[in-house]
Design a protein that fits this description.
By secondary structure, this protein is an alpha+beta fold. The chain has two domains: 2-78, 2-Layer Sandwich (Alpha-Beta Plaits); 80-161, no CATH class. 33% of the residues lie in helices and 27% in strands. The strands form two sheets. A five-stranded antiparallel β-sheet has the order 4-1-3-2-5. A four-stranded antiparallel β-sheet has the order 6-7-8-9. The longest helix is centred in the C-terminal third of the chain and has 18 residues, at 144-161. The two termini are 30 Å apart. The model has no long low-confidence stretch (mean pLDDT 87).
Length: 162
């Protein structure tokens, strides 16, 4: 069983995951289940048996959250990153952001998704660049889309180096 801690802002979820992991607590940033999703929101998945401990850590750190949702089966939280094999290319999706790269060369061939104003600028600096040389989108942007694209880039690098 798992539970997700819900937040009113994506930035709080990102901070919560960082704080929990820094304390050695197993936590994963995920998209909330479709039935309770409100748009571009994020949540933090924790083990059901440790949810109270996670909430106490967040309370002590002053990170506010909306609610906790536990799942025993059926539709639960959605993994933040997914991979799709497209033949010569692999597309990595993180939230609404997608990054596609060549399997052979590791060159980023496409970036799509999101709606944040910094994405065209970031995409302009990443397309036709090797995954091994690509800079973090967080150096160039500060939006939720930039954060999700950074997650996609990290996963793409991991896949390419396998």
């Amino acid at each position: 069983m798992s539970a997700v801690i819900l937040f009113d802002e994506a930035g709080k979820a990102i901070r919560a995951e960082y704080i929990l992991k820094k304390r050695g607590f197993p936590a994963t940033l995920v998209a909330p289940p479709p039935g309770i999703r409100r748009g571009c929101d994020l949540s933090v998945k924790v083990e059901d048996s440790r949810q109270l401990q996670a909430m106490q850590i967040l309370d002590n750190e002053g990170i506010s959250y909306l609610d906790l949702a536990a799942f025993t089966g059926g539709q639960g939280p959605v993994q933040l990153t997914e991979r799709k094999d497209l033949g010569e290319f692999i597309m990595v999706r993180a939230g609404n952001m997608k990054l596609t790269f060549s399997k052979d060369s590791g060159i980023i061939v496409n970036i799509s998704g999101g709606g944040c104003p910094d994405i065209p600028y970031i995409a302009n600096h990443l397309i036709n660049v090797s995954l091994t040389e690509a800079k973090s989108p967080l150096i160039m942007g500060t939006s939720l889309c930039a954060y999700l694209l950074d997650r996609a880039l990290i996963e793409a690098k991991r896949i390419f180096l396998e």
